[in-house]
Amino acid sequence: MRWLSLFLAPELRAWRGEMALWKVYWGYGVFASALLAVLLFGALRHQQLWLQHGLLAVLLLYTIWILISVWRCAQHAHPRWRFFARLSTIVWAGNALMVLGFLELDLLARLLRSWSEA
């Protein structure tokens, strides 16, 4: 367990709000989320339903983690950047909820359709 906490030390610092806002926002928020989205788009393109379902679950959990981490790390930032980070976090949460929700509904409909055809 100790090695896991050492491996995830930066992520734990972000969760506690102890990292620089720009690192969490741009590195974990924008860059890492974009990489996860690319994986999801690949699974969508290749019609890999179970991979899509798994990636949607990962994206949901990751989105919850990053939104809370950005919010907490914004506490120590300049007031202007704190306002921007928290406002964009609220917008990001709404967008993620709608996108992930509609993708999951579509995926469930396709899974049910494929089961009924079998």
Radius of gyration: 17 Å
Q: Tell me the total number of β-strands.
A: 0
Mean pLDDT: 92
Low-pLDDT parts are none
Give the biggest sheet: none
Shape: elongated
Q: Indicate the percent of residues in helices.
A: over 70%
SSE-based structural type: mainly alpha
Q: Helical segment tally?
A: 5
Oligomer: single chain
Order of helices and strands: HHHHH
Percent of residues in beta strands:
under 5%
Could you give the distance between the termini?
Answer: 44 Å
Structure write-up:
- By secondary structure, this protein is mainly α.
- Helices cover 87% and strands 0% of the residues.
- It has five helices and no strands.
- It has helices spanning 2-7, 9-15, 21-45, 49-74, 79-117.
- Helix 3 packs antiparallel against helix 4 and helix 4 (49-74) packs antiparallel against helix 5 (79-117).
- It starts with a helix and ends with a helix.
- The mean pLDDT is 92.
Any chance you could write out the topology, listing elements then pairs?
Elements: H1 2-7, H2 9-15, H3 21-45, H4 49-74, H5 79-117
Can you give me a brief rundown of this structure?
This protein is mostly helical and 118 residues long. Helix content is 87%, strand content 0%.
Q: Can you give keywords for this protein?
A:
mainly alpha; 5 helices; 118 residues
